């Protein structure tokens, strides 16, 4: 008999949710950066091990909605928590318990959600004693199934997670094919890999005001009989001045973004990639509901 377990990975921006999703799935399906609010959409990571299919729902860091885009992000978290077999609350061991965790705990309580607390980034904590007051606060916040201090980066205690999750599996047919790692399309993953490089190379505010749209995606065979994928992408930004900064002096910055993204996309697609990126300005797109849904920048 086959089994499924749906797991929502929640927590404040920058806690390490996408890093954990990638580690557990065993493939990079969700982008990671030092900047909070990297993930914008709910992303399903799928891992089938033996009879059990694990579906990890990586969610955007929870935040107060100030723009239409942020509203979509918050909604993506709420709907993810509704209907899972177990949730993970990813907390940051170097930060105080905040309103985000309190809000999430309320949401868990109203759905009677079973929650595992992972206290991440313990590689940055000097001594175990330092963690005790925080552990105490968290244990008062919610009746967690388990509390485990971990480090995704240094792989501390991460081997304990999968055996725990297996306990929440329920009998049923698998929802996804057994050989896929995500239900997201290659096009979507490409746009995310480009957005990741914007987050890596640009200053704080600019990448948050950008979106990436893949306008063309086609495959051909070159004269050496190798597969080449031609991808045309557009980076949408909010201001003319931002456009200039993204392109950089003599196009240097855009070249750097393109070459970093191309490497990752080639690895993902296992083919040669010819990537063309253009930059367009669209003022206030983050508050434009139609633009956000039409371009699938966030989920409904
Ligand atoms: N030192 C340390 N850094 C970590 C650890 N886990 C993740 N990080 C770093 O924390 C940053 C944020 O990681 P993400 O996985 O993007 O965090 P997230 O929770 O998905 O963030 P949002 O998508 O913005 O909500 C990245 O720079 C990671 O490399 C850890 O165990 N230790
Ligand atoms: Mg993320």
Structure commentary:
The protein has 300 residues and is α/β, with parallel strands linked by helices. It folds into two domains: 3-171, P-loop containing nucleotide triphosphate hydrolases (Rossmann fold); 186-294, K homology (KH) domain (GMP Synthetase, Chain A, domain 3, 2-Layer Sandwich). It has helices spanning 17-25, 68-82, 99-111, 128-141, 161-166, 186-201, 205-208, 240-247, 252-269, 289-294, and strands at 3-11, 43-49, 52-58, 86-92, 115-120, 146-149, 170-171, 211-221, 227-237, 272-281. Strands 1, 2, 3, 4, 5, 6 and 7 form a seven-stranded mixed sheet that branches. The chain has a three-stranded mixed sheet with strand order 8-9-10. Helix 4 links the parallel strand 5 and strand 6. Helix 6 (186-201) packs antiparallel against helix 9. It is globular, with a radius of gyration of 20 Å. The two termini are 34 Å apart. The model has no long low-confidence stretch (mean pLDDT 92). Residues 17-18, 30, 38-39 line the site of magnesium ion.
């Amino acid at each position: 008999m086959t089994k499924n377990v749906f797991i929502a990975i929640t927590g404040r921006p920058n806690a390490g949710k996408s890093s954990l999703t990638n580690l557990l799935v065993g493939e990079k399906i969700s982008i990671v950066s030092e900047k909070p609010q990297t993930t914008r959409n709910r992303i399903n990571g799928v891992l089938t091990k033996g009879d059990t299919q694990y579906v990890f729902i990586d969610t955007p860091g929870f935040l107060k909605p100030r723009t239409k885009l942020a509203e979509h992000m918050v909604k993506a978290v709420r709907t993810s928590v509704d209907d899972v077999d177990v949730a993970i609350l990813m907390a940051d061991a170097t930060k105080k318990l905040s309103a985000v965790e309190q809000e999430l705990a309320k949401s868990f309580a109203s759905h009677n959600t079973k929650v595992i607390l992972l206290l991440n980034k313990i590689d940055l904590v000097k001594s175990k004693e330092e963690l005790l007051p925080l552990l105490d606060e968290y244990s008062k916040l919610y009746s967690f199934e388990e509390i485990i201090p971990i480090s995704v980066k240094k792989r501390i205690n991460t081997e304990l997670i999968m055996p725990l999750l297996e306990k929440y599996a329920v009998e049923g047919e698998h929802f996804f094919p057994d050989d896929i790692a995500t239900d997201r399309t290659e096009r979507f993953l490409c746009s995310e890999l480009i957005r990741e490089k914007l987050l890596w190379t640009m200053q704080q505010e600019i990448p948050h005001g950008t979106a990436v749209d893949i306008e063309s995606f086609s495959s051909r065979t070159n004269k050496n009989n190798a597969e080449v994928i031609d991808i045309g992408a557009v980076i949408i930004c909010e201001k003319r001045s931002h456009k200039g900064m993204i392109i950089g002096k003599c196009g240097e910055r855009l070249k750097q973004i393109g070459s970093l993204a191309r490497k990752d996309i080639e690895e993902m697609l296992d083919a040669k990639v010819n990537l063309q990126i253009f930059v367009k300005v669209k003022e206030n797109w983050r508050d434009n509901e139609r633009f956000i849904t039409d371009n699938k920048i966030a989920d409904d």
